[in-house]
Amino acid sequence: MIQKFTGNVWKYGDNVNTDVIFPGKYTYQKMEPEEMAKHALEDLDPEFVNKVQDGDILVAGKNFGMGSSREQAAVAIKYAGIRVIIAKSFARIYFRNAINAGMPAIKSPEAVEAIENGDKVTVDMGKGEIITSKGTFNFPPYPGTVMEILENNGLINFIKNKIKK
What we know:
globular, seven-stranded mixed β-sheet, 33% helix, alpha/beta
């Protein structure tokens, strides 16, 4: 059960699009998620894939994930080690792709303003809290079915597990 994440922050600005999250030149190449992860954010931050640690947290400004609807943009970040994304706002399709991939995507403009690159942050999914050195910021917890999708590591596993029951 996913309830709480603590990790170091990678912070980026507004309008980070899917083409820099997962470069378009790889879109039609057959890759496993682990291979996609090797290209996460390579055009925005070439050091990201070499330094990201499992459990880190990505923080961004407005309209994170704008652009094309490629699912690889959510998958690449997740398999690179990011456990949760906090942003001022998300592009609608990216938000859905993140949830479908089993990646929590939390909208919290106030928390984004308080968080600095490299900070250690805790996200408590059950309580709807983002805990930073500058305070605690609340967000509405996900509804039950969305939490189940996240707890099953994505929509496909959620459906497979429902069919088994």
